[in-house]
Amino acid sequence: MDHTNHVRLTNAELTPDILEGATIYGPQDEKIGSVDHVHGSQVVIDVGGFLGIGAKPVAVAINQLDFMRDEDGGVHAATSWTKDQLKSLPEHRD
After folding, report:
1. Rounded to whole angstroms, how far apart are CA atoms 19 and 53?
2. Which CATH number does the domain 7-87 belong to among 3.20.20.10, 2.30.30.240, 2.130.10.10, 1.50.10.10?
3. I need a labelling partner for 55 at 20 to 30 A (CA). Which of 30, 32, 70, 81 fits?
């Protein structure tokens, strides 16, 4: 996915209603997870699994992800983290 024409979200747009469900793309532009929920200044990302089954929830600071909106209005994020790096983080528990 070419992110060059996507509009970066403002800090005011970094809300649970907007971010939850957003796809996370890794450094090779592959899908590596999705935002499950916002937890303070962190987002909890479900990594791995299939259709949410067997996914590992991990918490990452919101500012470590580049959230943007595509041409169709869909919200997603890009990161330099790989799927393996995210999966190596401790499991998030609410």
Report:
1. 20
2. 2.30.30.240
3. 70
